[in-house]
Write a structure and sequence with these properties.
Largest sheet: 8 strands, mixed
CATH superfamily of the domain at 48-140: PRC-barrel domain
CATH topology of the domain at 48-140: SH3 type barrels
Number of strands: 8
Order of helices and strands: EEEEEEHEE
Shape: elongated
Number of helices: 1
Mean pLDDT: 79
CATH class of the domain at 48-140: Mainly Beta
Structural class: mainly beta
Strand order of the largest sheet: 5-6-1-2-3-4-7-8
Distance between the termini: 77 Å
Helix content: under 10%
Length: 145
Amino acid sequence: MRAAAPIGRRPYAPAQPQTSPPAAKEPAPPPSVTVIGAREAHGVLGRDVRSPTDEDMGHIVDVIVDRAGVVRAAVIDFGGFLGVGSRKIVVDWNALHFGRVADKSDSITLELTKEQVNAAPEYKEDKPIVVLGAAGRLEPFEFEH
């Protein structure tokens, strides 16, 4: 014998989840691609930096960008011998001049003298960044990192 449901009610049945068919996703567009020839460009980290009079000014160890991703400055490991006695200074990106890669004159020249760089404060990651400008003047960098 079958039990009857109370009057005015339907027999218990588990509720079925309401699912709608998944919306068809459009395939993502392919990413854009730019091809740069190996003789046209290369990285800057670790590259030697020279003065206009061909003095060794150190090598680039980092690049500083602002919140918009625009390159603002380079950190140069300056002075010392084999890492002993060297210090890091920050120079304005516009003070660096890049030679042409295609004709093998891929040098980086810093538009400052050794005396100007020696006078610059040392870069410390946990301190405000002071950028040595192209004219040898110091400029605070407002970007908090």
